């Protein structure tokens, strides 16, 4: 899984991990749809099974198409090694379960992906892991909790759905002092904009379902970092079984080839949409790290190369207004997903925080009028026009 640091990320997205020659001189990575691999020579079989010779035994352990995807994320995240999973949540929970045991202490933030939050609050405590979830905006509180003793620091930045930015380097420094492993979910930023490994993080995780695959037609998860850590994660996958199937691996490989093109277009539109929303009277608040008014804009500039394709905003009038606005949009899916070529709108209540009660959402500062936009690759002007006409319709009906 070699990589060349001097090659641009757009080029890496196309070629990374795919330098090898394929059977039949095919130019595209083949989908190797085989559960097992056959051997005539029992001694050779034994050597491969023991990991002493290269080769494949059974696709829960390794598969050529899946390995190509793993090599590709290594190229993009500048990682030594990677392990692919059936979904992003399988990647997150498996990475956590690999390194945590009864008595471990985890420090993280209140704003993490909904499923991750449930692992922290429901499943890890059950196995005797002490989980402390800090106020996301308070670097001081996070540092203080790390200093009390911490085996694992788990970060996600930008956060979902309020786009808070966490200073990765600062918290990595605190974690290194107490010998904690640091994991970061890099799904929202994408490798185009942020490489947490270069900032000192040990393990980077992606929901490949989102920007990496990019077309909302495959699910997958990726974990990457040093081989000394990845061999443990790979062993966990082998035994616990949430391996990625080769068809999905193929779709994700194909999606990644256009990652740079897509995300560059998406974040250009995201910036324009965020700026437009700031001028809209029916909008109370706009969250986008590319806005100079964003609370952590200075941190975003330091650690990111671009600000990503997710924008969220709060409508005056709460859920009632959300219910009226969303059906007026033409170029948008209303769905619980993000990172696709199509623009997607979703209220926090039905997407990122569907697992939470109203009281829990309020405690997290997530108002009922909050809507997340995953900006697609459509023309910027069309997306803004669509929003403008939707707001106009809502304004006209409310005047009656
Ligand atoms: C979607 C998402 C996940 C979970 O990924 P799945 O592929 O849906 O399991 C994890 N983290 C973030 C930030 C996500 O957006």
Separate helix tally: 15
What ligand species are in this complex? Answer: pyridoxal-5'-phosphate
The overall number of domains is 2
CATH architecture of the largest domain: 3-Layer(aba) Sandwich
Strand fraction equals: 5-15%
CATH topology of the largest domain: Aspartate Aminotransferase, domain 2
Sequence of strands across the biggest β-sheet:
1-7-6-5-4-2-3
Query: Structural class, judged by helices and strands?
Result: alpha/beta
User: CATH top level of the largest domain?
Assistant: Alpha Beta
- Within CATH, the superfamily of the largest domain carries the name Type I PLP-dependent aspartate aminotransferase-like (Major domain)
Which ranges are low-confidence, i.e. pLDDT below 50, for 5 or more consecutive residues? none
Helix and strand element order: HHHEHEHEHEHEHEEHHHEHEHEEHEH
Largest sheet: 7 strands, mixed
Count every beta strand, where a strand is a DSSP E run of 2 or more residues: 12
The pLDDT mean sits at 95
Amount of helix: 40-55%
Measured distance between first and last alpha carbons: 63 Å
Provide the gyration radius in Å.
22 Å
Global morphology:
globular
């Amino acid at each position: 899984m070699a990589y060349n640091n001097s090659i641009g990320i757009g080029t890496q997205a196309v070629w990374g991990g795919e330098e090898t020659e394929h059977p039949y001189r095919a130019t595209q990575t083949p989908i190797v749809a085989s559960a097992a691999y056959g051997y005539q020579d029992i001694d050779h079989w034994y050597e491969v099974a023991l990991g002493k010779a290269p080769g494949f035994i059974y696709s829960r352990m390794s598969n050529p198409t899946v390995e190509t995807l793993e090599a590709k994320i290594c190229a993009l995240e500048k990682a030594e090694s990677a392990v692919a999973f059936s979904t992003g949540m399988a990647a997150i929970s498996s990475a956590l379960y690999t390194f945590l045991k009864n008595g471990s202490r985890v420090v993280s933030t209140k704003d993490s992906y909904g499923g991750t939050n449930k692992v922290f609050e429901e499943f890890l405590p059950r196995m005797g892991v002490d989980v402390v979830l800090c106020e996301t905006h308070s670097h001081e509180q996070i540092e203080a909790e790390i200093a009390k003793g911490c085996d694992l620091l788990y970060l996600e930045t930008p956060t979902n759905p309020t786009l808070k930015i966490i200073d990765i380097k600062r918290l990595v420094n605190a974690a290194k002092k107490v010998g904690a492993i640091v994991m970061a979910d890099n799904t929202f930023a994408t490798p185009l904009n942020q490489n947490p490994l270069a900032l000192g993080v040990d393990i980077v995780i992606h929901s490949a379902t989102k920007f990496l695959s990019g077309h909302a037609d495959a699910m997958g998860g990726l974990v990457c970092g040093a081989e000394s850590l990845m061999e443990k994660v790979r062993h966990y996958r082998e035994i616990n079984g949430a391996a990625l199937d080769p068809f999905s691996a193929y779709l994700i490989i194909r999606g990644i080839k256009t990652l740079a093109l897509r995300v560059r277009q998406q974040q250009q539109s995201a910036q324009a949409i965020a700026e437009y929303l700031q001028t809209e009277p029916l909008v109370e608040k706009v969250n986008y790290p590319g806005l100079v008014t964003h609370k952590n804009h200075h941190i975003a500039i330091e650690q990111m190369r671009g600000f990503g394709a997710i924008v969220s905003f709060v409508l005056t009038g709460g859920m009632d207004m959300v219910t009226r606005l969303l059906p007026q949009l033409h170029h948008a899916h209303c769905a619980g997903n993000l990172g696709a070529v199509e623009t997607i709108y979703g209220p926090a209540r039905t997407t990122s925080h569907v697992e939470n009660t109203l009281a829990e959402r309020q405690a997290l500062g997530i108002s009922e009028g909050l809507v997340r936009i995953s900006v697609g690759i459509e023309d910027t002007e069309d997306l803004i026009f669509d929003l403008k006409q939707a707001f106009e319709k809502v304004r006209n009906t409310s005047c009656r």
